[in-house]
Amino acid sequence: MSRARLTRGRGVETAAADPSSPDARRCLEQYFAELAARFSAGFDRGRDGAGDLRDLAPPAGCLLIARLAGEPAGCAGLRALEPGVGEIKRMWVAPEARGRGIGRRLLCELEELARQRGMHALRLDTNESLSEALQLYRSSGYREIARFNDNPYAHHWFEKILS
Fold first, then answer.
1. How many other β-carbons are positioned within 10 Å of the β-carbon of residue 104?
2. I need a surface site. Which of 49, 107, 114, 148 has the fewest CB within 10 A?
3. 77 lies in which domain range?
4. Is 3 part of a structural domain of the chain?
């Protein structure tokens, strides 16, 4: 997706990043901290497998970092789930950057990357307390499906068939 296609607001750029880079670690630490604060039972990375980010690294996966005025403001990952099917992981936008379309932009860019990689469908899961995420996924054409993983923190599972 071209940088010229900015979504609501100037100065937003996205780029692939190594999951172990400082900007990625900064976003992911804030993401995990927010999950711990928002989930009714807290969040334990060990139960979720969140510590292993290898599947978000090339060539198997990808992690996008959104920057607002040069500062990391969000992230979203894509990994192969099974042949032709990808999974979106670690989607997060900094609270102070919300409402600028950054989450939707990250989601659209991951969908395009999935198409380029020959994926025909994307899946994801989310927690019931993440109402903004639920609204974004539903309004972006994701439909609820049966549980496809054993994530102990998920209450909703979604899929989108890519055209």
1. 15
2. 49
3. 12-161
4. no
